[in-house]
Amino acid sequence: MINAARRFWPTVTVCLILLAMPYWMPLFGGYTELSTRILVLGLAAMALNFLLGFTGVLSFGHAAYFGLGAYGVGMAIKYLGTGTVSAIAVGTCAGTLAAALVGRLIVHLRGVYFAMVTIAFGQVFYFIAFRWNSVTGGDDGLTGWRRVPLDFGIAKLDILAGDKSFYYLVLVVFLAAAAAMAALIRSPFGRTLVAIRENERRARFLGIDVERHMWFSFVISSLFVSIAGSLFALLNNFVDPRVLRWDLSGSFVIMAVLGGMRSFWGPLVGAAVFVVLQDYVSSKTENWMSFVGLFFVLVVLFFPRGLLGLLRRRSSHESA
Amino acid sequence: MTQLVLFNVFNGLIVGAFYALMALGLSLILNLSGVINFAHGGFLALGGYIAFTLVPYVGFWGGLVLAPVLTALIGLLLEKVLIRRLYGRDPLYSLLLTFGLAYILEDATRYIWGARSLPYEVPSWLNYSLSPGLFFLTGYRLFMVALVAAAVAGLFALLKYTRLGMRIRAGTLDLETVSVLGVNVRILRNVNFGLGIYLAGIAGVLAAGMLGLQPTIGASLIMPSFVAIIVGGLGSLPGTLLGGLLIGVASGVTAVFAPSGTEAVIYVIMAIVLLVRPRGLLGEEGRV
Amino acid sequence: MGAPFIVPALGEEAVRIGMDNPLTGTYAALGANEVIGARLAVEQINAKGGILGRKVELLVEDSTSGDAGTAVQKARKMIDRDKIDFLLGNVNSALALAMGQVAAEKGKLLIVPGGHTDAVTGTDCHWNVFRVCNTTRMETNSISKLLFDKYGKKWYFITPDYAFGHTLQQGFQASLKKFGGTEVGADLSPLGTTDFSSYLIKAQAANPDVIILLHAGDDMVNVLKQAVQFGLDKRFHLAGAQQELEVLTGLPPEARVGSWVFEWYWNQPNTPHVADFVADVRKKSGGKVPTARTWFGFASAWSCALAANGAKSLETPAMAKALRGMKLPPEIALMPNQPFFREGDNQLMPTLFVGHAQAKGSADPEDLFVVDSFVKGEDAAPPVSETGCVMKLPS
Q1: Domains and CATH numbers, chain A
Q2: pTM of the model as a whole
Q3: Nearest residue in chain A measured CA to CA from B98
Q4: d(CA C87, CA A240)
Q5: Chain C contacts of B4, Cβ < 8 Å?
Q6: Are strands C15-21 and C56-62 parallel, antiparallel or unpaired?
Q7: Of residues A137, A138, A146, nearest to C101 (C-beta)
Q8: Beta bridge partners of C271
Q9: C73 and A37: CB-CB below 8 Å?
Q10: Are the beta carbons of A242 and C93 separated by less than 8 Å?
């Protein structure tokens, strides 16, 4: 009974905090859009962490699928005139399909090679978006479209003008995605992934088809990251090729590490800290890059297990 | 058309030599210490900027000699203070640390020298073309190739004929045994890192003469170096050299037929190599 | 810089101008100069009594040089949290377009100081978005006849592969067609190319009269430097449209060659008020002269004051109405002829400075451009009907 409660209280706390975010954010000098941004990037970091933290595979090219999700949404709304939900579906399909194809090609690689080839493919998508000016708008980006109000038949939700309405829509999608990811991690499939992370050779000896599981993990992770990308496009009402670049992928990795790779909510915490820090510091000084860089360095040196890892160690010390 | 292609091949070799120089420094560090130095570009930029500051006092040649040394010293310091702590850990951490370091270096160069492009002057006697026909073979570019060749030769000689070189090579294969045999591994890694940064510094001074000096110059040159290493094969310095030259030539030839793909082609090559021969062209088995 | 924790002062609340411009990355130098100009303008505005009698505050945020997400985030932050009354930005055309959408969504007045893509006052125009710098078409039209008559009919283009480059090339191609010249070749170079040798090799092989370089920023520094290293300036004429002082100062003296268009230049002995402006900016920038970017920021910030004081209100529709057709007074225009914001596309019609680069100024080390002629913006600009701008005015 107590164990079950222990397991759920972080989730409940997080949900409560998120539900109230648009209201307490402004008290700290934040604004609703910042909260939405935290959710979107947090989802991306959590999706990446599915691969990184739980399967033990480092992808440095996840921005490619994030970006494909974003372009999918933009192009769907601009050229096909679809509604928001269909657009998100299109974006998600685009990202996931691409990941399925790429994943097929690269699952036999490991370590830094795997990381580099993910960058390579990411860059290829980046250059396609850049060059295909007529369709993607190239460097100028995809403009001339915006969020369409949601029509549920009985009620209309104006997510364009209402920052808060959009935030809650994103929150709903976020929680659904998080629930799905949590379910997957808890399932036997998820446990197998952890086994692979811990000791790949042993898993193979146990008869587990390692490549297949890695491929699935890659595809699932990309599915959620492309959902995040779709939301990102809707947030900005704008897509440009930079959303596909490897430095964005790097940011996702940092967020995951910062929050704690081994914990489920870690990447969300990491994303929150990263986004708020960058927002705050870049307002105060032109030299925000130094501060952010210094931050990376300090995290790696002193908090390699991430912030949640730190908390966990403290609490386990207490209970010992 | 053949002449055009030939020109571009020659030119690609020159550019490739430059990529190779930068990649060699990176490779040296990666092979011995297992550290992926994302900040390598930042050191390159630093080398160029330090040379720019020194040139009014010691001239172009003085800058060329001194700047890489000073850059290497900064590298040695940073290795001692920061990077040393990451040995033995997941390469992810060194990646993130050097990523952060790259940000700091870029911001520092912008803060100290300003965001504007700075003009770097090469000695005027190098500013000629070999002939009207071979106009793109300028004195400076030939000098660059000569310098890179000398640096590479020097590096390989160092590795083959000196005790330090032998230790580095042995360490690349099995660092633990080398340590057990009584070599101070800490100093070895430190010196190796400095050596890698020294090469980056030279590349930086050369880059300043060929391109301009901007704080972002490091970030723009780091990716081709990584590709050169992957294509050539992790763990193989000759491979890195070959990789650099290959992508230089590939870029040049692509410019003739499909100019907008000159950047993309190096990633396509990397993807193909990784899929068909993951260990790289000259890489060793078992390095994956 | 932004002020996250300030509680609005009781009593007379300041009018806020929010500037969302690159302070890091490739465009850092350009963005920073625009900020200097804007700051000077705000000082002058406050000295003259502010906007509608209220003090003016300038908030500056770094949009980064290419991350639209950040630019949009900062724009929203300044609108929602900091309650700015005006938005300024961006050097990067893509970011300018993204900010235009935010401004349209939130009904704020956006003045684009230095984002050149034609779409800002063309296909993506909005009733509340105004632009100070020229369109690429204006730039090419101002210089193309000169190049054709003086240097030759055969042109080779090396174009950076993004909208800015494409539209410049299209502009020149249209002119070339009109005059009956020939395009002997064209190449697209990826943005951020560091080594242009292969493109220059091809250009040389095509044997043109003029090699047209359409790059900006660091790309222009690299391509021009390498072109001169190859001795191409001795065999062909190098030219282009937009050129900036920041680029010329970044080049070694022997590479400062070619025919170009400047959108504003500091050395104007015959234009009143300019010398004072130059002196004021020198104080703020550690002795450096103002560049076109400085003037863009200056004119944009001043336009905010003109709009509000003209409309006697801070309501965006009223201010936009006041700004349409507004002529810039000489102390703000700082150029011959009188620039004005054109009705129909909200584009400023400034004067373009056509001339050639020089290695070193006789009087001042920063005098690197010689102005040969002035071209009126409205003569160089295509009519509104050809810009693709269909403006929907608010009711």
Answers
A1: 2-319 (1.10.3470)
A2: 0.85
A3: A297
A4: 21
A5: 201-202, 205
A6: parallel
A7: A146
A8: none
A9: yes
A10: no
Give the CA distances from residue A192 to residues A7, A117, A187, B61, C83, in Å, rounded to whole numbers and listed in that order.
21, 25, 9, 61, 52
Task: Output the CA–CA distances (angstroms, integers) from residue A153 to A149, A150, A156, A168, in the order listed.
Answer: 12, 9, 7, 19
Interface mutation target, options B214, B247, B256, chain C, most CBs of C under 10 Å: B214
Angle formed by the axes of helices B40-81 and B91-113, to 10°?
A: 110
Name residues whose C-beta falls within 8 Å of residue B177's C-beta, 6 or more positions apart in sequence. Answer: B170
Euclidean distance between CA atoms A254 and A275, whole angstroms: 11
Same fold, C15-134+271-349 and C137-262+353-380: yes
Contacts with B211 (C-beta within 8 Å, 6 or more apart), sequence order? B217, C194, C195, C221, C222, C225
> Is the Cβ pair C98, A37 closer than 8 Å?
no
Q: What is the pLDDT of residues C211-247, one digit of tens each?
A: 999 999 888 998 998 899 888 999 999 999 999 999 9
Q: How far apart are CA B81 and CA C68, in angstroms?
A: 36
User: Rounded to an integer, what distance in angstroms lies between the CA atom of residue B252 and that of residue C199?
Assistant: 9
Please tell me if residue A277 touches chain B, with a CB cutoff of 8 Å: no
- The residue type of C81 is R
Closest CA–CA distance from residue A117 to any residue of chain B (Å): 6
| Residue B58 contacts C, CB cutoff 8 Å | no
pLDDT tens figures, C130-189: 999 999 999 999 999 999 999 999 999 999 988 888 889 999 999 999 999 999 999 988
Using CB atoms, which chains have 3+ pairs under 8 A with B?
A: A, C
Helix (H) / strand (E) containing B267: helix B264-276
Q: Is residue B233 within 8 Å of residue B2, measured between CB atoms?
A: no
Q: Where are the domains of chain C?
A: 15-134+271-349, 137-262+353-380
Quick check: A56 and A261 in contact, CB under 8 A? Answer: no
In the numeric block, the tokens 């290795």 are attached to B79
- C contact test, residue of B7, B211, B222 with most C CBs within 10 A: B211
Tokens linked to C247: 């680029």
**If you count residue pairs, one on A and one on C, with CB atoms under 8 Å apart, how many are there?**
108
Please give the radius of gyration of chain B, using alpha carbons only, rounded to the nearest integer.
19
B227 interaction partners in chain A (CB closer than 8 Å): 120
User: Could you identify the residue written with the tokens 């940092």?
Assistant: A254
ipTM exceeding cut-off 0.85 for this assembly: no
* Overall CATH class of domain C15-134+271-349: alpha beta
Task: Give the integer Cα–Cα distance in Å for A84 and A86.
Answer: 6
Residue C55 token pair? 């003090």
Interface test with A, best of B36, B78, B107 (most A CBs within 10 A): B107
Identity of residue C258: G
CB contact under 8 A, A140 and C3: no
Closest by alpha carbon to A110, among B278, B232, B271?
B278
CA neighbor of B88 nearest in space, from A56, A304, A113: A304
Whether C285 has its CB under 8 Å from any CB of chain B: the answer is no
Mark which residues 185-214 of B lie under 8 Å from A by CB.
none
Yes or no: is domain C137-262+353-380 CATH 3.40.50.2300? Answer: yes
CB contact under 8 A, A109 and B278: yes
pLDDT reported for residue B183: 86
For chain A positions 118-177, those within 8 Å of chain B (CB to CB) are 119-121, 123-124, 127, 131
Counting as low any pLDDT under 70, the low residues of chain A are: 1-7, 151-162, 312-320
Cα separation, A8 vs B136, whole angstroms: 69
Summarised one tens digit per residue, pLDDT across range B257-266 is 887 778 888 8
Report which of B5, A92, B17 is spatially closest to residue C195, judged by C-alpha positions: B17
Contact B96 A287 (CB under 8 A): no
On average, the pLDDT of chain C sits at 90
